[in-house]
Structures are given as C-alpha cells and as structure tokens.
Write a structure and sequence with these properties.
By secondary structure, this protein is α/β, with parallel strands linked by helices. It has one domain: 4-Layer Sandwich (Purple Acid Phosphatase, chain A, domain 2). Helix content is about 25%, strand content about 25%. The protein is built from 7 helices and 13 strands. It has a 6-stranded mixed β-sheet with strand order 4-5-6-7-9-8, covered by helices on one side. It has a 5-stranded mixed β-sheet with strand order 3-2-1-12-13. Helix 2 packs parallel to helix 4. The protein is globular, with a radius of gyration of 17 Å.
Length: about 270
C-alpha cells in the first residue's frame, strides 16, 4: 500500500472583522499554518478543511480562503477537500469553493488519492450548531462504500460522533452517531476525521478510530468542563495512512512556535 499524507485544517473561522476576540486572529493563524507546511517542506497529498471555514458564512471570506489556498505552495500539488461546518452557509460555500450552483442541499463528496477513498459528509443542520446526517447523506455514504476501495476509506465530517469534555461542546455533537456507526460497520472505513470542538481528541465508533482535530483559529481549553474557555493559538493535524494504520499527529501553530528549522536542546526519548 502507498503512503498517504493528509493535513487537516479545521475550524478556520475566517472573518472580515479581523480578530474574533483580542489575540484571536484566524487569518494570521491560517497563514502561519500554510507557511509552516511550506517552510518544513511538508508535501501533503491531501489537505482536508473540516468545517467552520468562515465565521459568518459570507462570500468575501470564502474568497479569501480560496485565495490563501491557491497561493500556497503547500497546497499546489495537494488534493484539497472543503467540508462544511455549522458556521458555513451552503450557497456561498458551493459557489465560491466548489464552483457549483448555490444549491442549499447537503454538500457530500467523494475524493480519491490513489487507491485511498475520502468520503466527505455534510453533517450541518441549517440554522443549528449541532450536527446530524440526514437520510440522503446516509444513503450517499452507503452508496460510496458499497464497493471496497483498493486502500480503504476515510470518512470526513465536521461534527464528532463522540462527546467533548466541555459540556457546551458536547451538547453540539453529531446527534445520530449510531446511524453513522451502523453505516460504516463492516466496511473498509479505516478512520473517521472530524473537527468542531477546537481541541484534539481520540475515540472510536464501534471498531473504527475517530479523530477530532484541533482548530487553526483558537484553542478550546479542555480543562474547563463547564463554560467554553478560549485560548490563543491553534493547531493542525498530520495524518499518515499506510499499511501500518492511520497515525494522527498534532502540529501547533501560532504564537510561541519556534522559527523554521529551530531545534531545542532536549533529546527525544
């Protein structure tokens, strides 16, 4: 099996307002993430943007996002997959990022890298912050997985099927996680990748591993079990897929990151 390198950028929250809050600059963090990939020569095969790509769902912010990816050397040779989140709006998302007519139906997609299949699902519920997969989306998933892919499948969506330790976020999870579990049981799905929570997390759905990627825009403090506590900075995920399995690694971005190529005095191990 070939090696596939995926980079997950989640919850970008681009906005024309500049900072979302003092010290929270989504555009600067996105630029830092893309620059880091370039500086470290991370040759991604696939770049996954897993929802809440803009904060207000406005066309200018989607155009800014598309321009940032188009001008990035890191994305130039990668397959880029855009997935909607609860802050996104399907019409502008479709027209700007996908070049499609601004239809309001679920945005479900299949992308390939070699023999690896990526099934991207729309888990958004228009006007709501929680997630759900409607009957048409579940049918789309079943059709996509009907025949095994040569190197397996990865399912991608915004809302995690597993809870967050932050009560506010846990209430906004995927409402029908059991339906997703039944849909992928016994198939070639090797992992489920999500965003939404703004903190990293690992779980499973049946026998399938689930990864909740951190956000590029800001960090949700998982130590605060009650109210959502926002911290500056952000992170992205490196996902390596090969015969050994699916390995996820968090890459910090934003303030406090050392200059490219800098190495500390501590030896590994």
């Amino acid at each position: 099996m070939a090696h596939h390198l995926l980079i997950q950028l989640s919850d970008v929250h681009l906005t024309r307002r500049g900072e979302l809050a003092p010290g929270i600059d989504p555009a600067a963090n996105l630029a830092s993430a893309l620059a880091l990939l370039e500086d470290e020569d991370v040759a991604a095969d696939v770049i996954l943007l897993t929802g809440d790509l803009t904060n207000e769902g406005d066309e200018p912010s989607y155009r800014d996002l598309a321009a940032a990816l188009a001008s990035s050397r890191a994305a130039a040779t990668a397959t880029v997959v855009y997935v909607p989140g609860n802050h996104d709006r399907r019409g502008p998302f479709r027209s700007v990022l996908l070049g499609q007519a601004p239809d309001e139906g679920p945005i479900n997609q299949v992308a390939w890298h070699g023999g690896l299949r990526l099934v991207a699902l729309d888990s958004t519920v228009p006007g709501e912050d929680h997630g759900s997969l409607d009957a048409g989306t579940l049918d789309f998933l079943a059709d996509a997985l009907a025949e095994p892919a040569p190197e397996g499948s990865i399912v991608v969506l915004h809302h995690p099927p597993s809870p967050s330790p932050i009560e506010m976020m846990a209430a906004l999870r995927l409402a029908n996680a059991d339906d997703l579990g039944r849909a992928i049981e016994g198939t070639d799905v090797r992992a489920v990748l999500c965003g939404h929570y703004h903190h990293a997390g690992a779980s499973h759905l049946g026998a399938v591993p689930v990864w909740t990627g951190p956000a590029t825009s800001f960090v949700a403090d998982a130590a605060s079990a009650g109210d959502l506590r926002i911290l500056p900075g952000g992170a992205m995920t490196r996902i390596d897929v090969d015969d050994d399995g699916v390995v996820t690694s968090v890459i910090p971005i934003g303030p406090g990151r050392p200059a490219p190529g800098a190495r500390g005095p501590v030896r590994p191990g």
